[in-house]
Design goal:
The protein is mainly alpha-helical. Helices cover 78% and strands 0% of the residues. Helix 1 runs antiparallel to helix 2 and helix 2 runs antiparallel to helix 3.
Length: 100
């Protein structure tokens, strides 16, 4: 059996990659993919602790996180399409001009 520390290390690495992408990228598509990486890191943690404790609660929550991620992608792609239609680019910094 693989020790839980390996899963936690993998999850931390994936989360850090996603956080780096969120903080440094200006493209909305990269931003959306980075958020997905962060959600997948949370899923790795949930499933690892579910296996460690021997119950199905973590796997159940992971399914809810997957459903949340699918809804987030659907809404995010719609927002990105409107951003591209209005500004001709998918840069997140251009959305600040939509305020007033």
């Amino acid at each position: 059996m693989v020790p839980p520390e390996y899963y936690l290390l993998l999850s931390a690495a994936v989360f850090c990659i996603g956080l780096f992408g969120v903080l440094t990228r200006k493209n909305a598509l990269y931003f959306l993919m980075s958020v997905e990486l962060m959600l997948n890191a949370a899923n790795i943690n949930l499933i690892a602790f579910s296996l460690f404790w021997g119950n199905m609660t973590g796997q159940t929550f992971a399914l809810f996180v997957i459903a949340l991620a699918a809804a987030e992608v659907a809404i995010g792609i719609g927002i990105i399409l409107v951003l591209y239609r209005n500004f001709g680019t998918v840069s997140v910094t251009d959305a600040t001009t939509m305020r007033w």
